[in-house]
């Protein structure tokens, strides 16, 4: 074991990054118009989409957030999350929201909102999506920069030109610039291709890191460390978690509800929602997402368990004390750090540097850089294009009129300008903002500004003919007001809100304390305690709980206002291009056969529960059934554990550890090995096909410039895409 990065480690970081840049440069030559920049030409295959989207979704900040969450709460809560298995199966196999959204051919979610509601609502929703996403993403560079500093033991300042320059700011500028170059070159196309390549590298690194952790920590050492947790905070026993607060069973339940309500509502990776070759490929990419976790989940789990063992087992006490000392020393000199928050975030990364051997340290660093860059490119593209496509250009149309459209070249440059603005704002926000909450809770709070109302508007807009623009406005305005209010309370409660109330309005503060603590006593599942006895003094209602209350309010307002104002049902078939409006429902192997399965709603077949239609090939059906059988097996095991432990046989701490050791761990190793080979082959094949298709399209456009559809730029007229 070692504690510093060597030249071998840095070489492991540099070589894969060079490969990613070369492939990104190759892809950018195929960007010809706005739809290429926004939706990668709509020619992506399922494996390419699944791997690239998965890599972008599992960013560095997500890994650090999981480190923070699982180190504190263990894996006992994952048991209760098994209810999400059946829920996720239904959502994925039926293509809930995903399929219908792709049928609209919208390039952005707010474009769909204009098609379904109005241009004014598109502007409002686009601005709120942009604001919510901007605040949410603006923390990403801070976590990434701090991870690099702590993991690589970089100094706080470097001196040149006679001045001290903060390394934290320089690091953020460096990797933001790297990501910015990739996304400015070719938008969604270069973003998707580089994300996929980084995903291919990552699969190999996941496997190597998993093997390393299993080699260095014995099962007996892990068992001794995790079994020493306080009562009510078990690492594996889901029936012994009563003392967990921020992350508890209520947190899991709200997450389940939010998974349905917020389906496709978060737009950080919206470019992937419209990049597939057709709606069926989009749907199958989602089905593959049920398998793609592989070694990813196992690696994060073992890294957390390894770090926890390292920090708590007597065998490693001396090195663990050194880690704690280093954290204290670094945080004391980190002017941007909030002590407790940063200690929670950086504990596992610093411990891992002391655990992983030479070479593996560099590979893990390369992996985290891949995840950092892939998320940066995807999020900068999403929020920058939303700003332009759904706020700036619609406002311009209102001002100058629809008869003076912007040219494709000018639109591409404005899109690049919007993306550049996102990068600059993210650096500035991250450099000066002091985070006071867990990363996951920060995500929930900033995301709720848009998500609170977006779920109702998306599901209602795609599935309910009587949803109206008035209901949509009500839901989204309430989402903005409540979300911004919650964000401000979370951020400024400790200072200045709580001190002001304590000194100037003690009666109001006591009334708030009495009300919240009464609710907490009535609902033991929540812990709403108002300071000063609870330190640090945080706003007593968590971000997740605020988000749930917002959902209930916004959903109710959408339904009530829509029922009161609906005069004529909306023509969903026309918006979804179904029936006589059908444009692209064709079987991939037989372009002459129009798919009408979506229209056959009167005939019930059991396979329809799996979402199987005539678009499904034999391989597609095998894939759907494999997901069903695997998910069903997992849910049956969950029911067995639940019934067993609530009726006749409680396993206890050792029983739950043995289940993890002798079933969960081996099974995940097998699944990880299989899916690594499977997805590496599938995504490599799709990458080859993508470049071949792009080359064919480029040659065809050069031979016949008229087929280069510059009208496909996100413009909507009279509730229809202009290309219709």
Number of strands: 6
Helicity range of the residues?
Answer: 55-70%
Return the average pLDDT rounded to an integer: 81
- Oligomeric state of the chains? single chain
Helix segment count? 26
Largest sheet: 2 strands, antiparallel
- What structural class do you assign from the helix and strand content? mainly alpha
First-to-last CA distance:
62 Å
Shape: globular
What are the SSEs and their pairings?
Layout: H1 7-28, H2 34-39, H3 46-57, H4 60-73, H5 77-80, H6 83-94, H7 98-103, H8 109-116, H9 119-137, H10 140-152, E1 157-160, E2 163-166, H11 167-216, H12 219-226, H13 249-261, H14 279-288, H15 295-312, H16 317-332, H17 339-355, H18 360-400, H19 408-432, H20 439-463, H21 469-504, H22 506-522, H23 543-565, H24 572-575, E3 586-587, E4 590-594, H25 618-647, H26 652-703, E5 716-717, E6 720-721
Antiparallel strand pairs: 1-2, 3-4, 5-6
Helix pairs in contact: 1-11, 1-18, 3-11, 3-14, 3-18, 3-26, 4-15, 4-17, 6-14, 6-25, 8-9, 9-18, 9-20, 9-21, 10-11, 10-17, 10-18, 10-19, 11-15, 11-18, 11-19, 11-26, 12-15, 13-23, 15-17, 16-17, 18-19, 20-21, 20-23, 21-23
């Amino acid at each position: 074991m070692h504690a510093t990065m060597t030249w071998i480690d840095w070489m492991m970081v540099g070589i894969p990054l060079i490969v990613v840049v070369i492939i990104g440069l190759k892809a950018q030559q195929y960007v010809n118009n706005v739809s290429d920049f926004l939706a990668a030409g709509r020619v992506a295959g399922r494996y390419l989409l699944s791997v690239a989207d998965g890599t972008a979704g599992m960013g560095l900040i997500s890994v650090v957030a999981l480190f923070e969450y699982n180190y504190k709460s263990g894996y006992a809560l994952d048991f209760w999350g098994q209810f999400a298995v059946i829920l996720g199966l239904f959502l994925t196999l039926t293509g809930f929201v995903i399929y219908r959204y792709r049928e609209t051919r919208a390039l952005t979610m707010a474009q769909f909102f204009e098609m379904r509601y109005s241009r004014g609502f598109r502007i409002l929703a686009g601005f709120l999506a942009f604001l919510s996403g901007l605040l949410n993403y603006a923390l990403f560079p801070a976590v990434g920069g701090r991870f690099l500093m702590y993991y690589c033991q970089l100094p706080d300042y470097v001196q040149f030109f006679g001045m001290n320059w903060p390394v934290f700011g320089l690091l953020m500028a460096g990797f933001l610039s790297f990501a910015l170059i990739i996304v400015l070159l070719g938008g969604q196309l270069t973003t998707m291709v580089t994300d996929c390549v980084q995903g291919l590298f990552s699969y190999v690194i996941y496997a190597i890191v998993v093997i390393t952790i299993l080699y260095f920590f014995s099962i007996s050492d892990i068992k001794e460390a995790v079994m020493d947790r306080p009562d009510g905070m078990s690492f594996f026993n889901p029936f012994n978690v009563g003392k967990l607060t921020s992350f508890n069973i209520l947190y899991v339940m709200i997450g389940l509800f939010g998974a349905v309500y917020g389906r496709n509502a978060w737009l950080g990776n919206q470019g992937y929602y419209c990049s597939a070759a057709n709606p069926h490929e989009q749907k199958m990419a989602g089905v593959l997402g049920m398998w793609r976790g592989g070694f990813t989940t196992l690696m994060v789990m073992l890294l957390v368990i390894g770090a926890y063992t390292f920090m708590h087992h007597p065998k490693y006490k001396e090195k663990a004390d050194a880690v704690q000392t280093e954290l204290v020393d670094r945080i004391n000199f980190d002017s941007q750090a909030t002590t407790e928050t940063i200690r929670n975030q950086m504990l596992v990364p610093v411990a891992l540097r002391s655990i992983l051997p030479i070479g593996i340290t560099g590979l893990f660093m390369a992996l985290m850089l891949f995840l950092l860059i892939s998320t940066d490119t995807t999020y900068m593209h999403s929020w920058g294009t939303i700003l332009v496509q759904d706020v700036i250009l619609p406002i311009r149309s209102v001002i100058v009129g629809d008869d003076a459209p912007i040219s494709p070249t000018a639109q591409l440059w404005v899109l690049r300008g919007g993306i550049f603005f996102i990068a600059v704002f993210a650096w500035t926000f991250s450099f000066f903002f002091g985070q006071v909450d867990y990363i996951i809770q920060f995500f929930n709070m900033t995301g709720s500004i848009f998500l609170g109302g977006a779920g109702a508007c998306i599901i209602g807009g795609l599935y309910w003919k009587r949803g109206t623009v008035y209901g949509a406005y009500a839901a989204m305005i309430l989402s903005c007001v409540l979300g911004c209010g919650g964000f401000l309370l979370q951020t400024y409660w400790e200072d200045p809100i709580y001190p002001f109330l304590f000194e100037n309005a003690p009666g109001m503060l006591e009334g708030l304390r009495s009300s919240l603590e009464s609710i907490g006593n009535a609902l033991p599942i929540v812990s709403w305690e108002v300071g000063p006895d609870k330190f640090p003094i945080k706003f007593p209602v968590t971000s997740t709980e605020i988000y749930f209350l917002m959902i209930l309010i916004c959903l109710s307002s959408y339904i009530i206002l829509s029922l009161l104002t609906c005069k004529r049902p909306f023509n969903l078939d026309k918006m979804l291009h179904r029936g006589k409006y059908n444009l692209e429902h064709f079987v991939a192997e037989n372009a002459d056969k129009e798919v009408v399965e979506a229209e056959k709603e009167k005939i019930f077949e059991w396979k329809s529960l799996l979402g199987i239609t005539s678009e499904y090939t034999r391989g597609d059906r095998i894939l759907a059934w494999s997901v069903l059988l695997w998910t069903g097996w997992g849910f049956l095991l969950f029911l067995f554990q639940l019934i067993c432990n609530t009726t006749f046989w409680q396993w206890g701490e050792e029983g739950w550890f043995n289940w993890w050791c002798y079933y969960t761990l081996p099974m995940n190793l097998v699944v990880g090995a299989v899916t690594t080979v499977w997805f590496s082959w599938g995504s490599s094949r799709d990458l080859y096909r993508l470049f071949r298709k792009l080359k064919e399209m480029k040659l065809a456009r050069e031979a016949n410039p008229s087929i280069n559809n510059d009208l496909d730029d996100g413009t909507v007229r009279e509730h229809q895409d202009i290309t219709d």
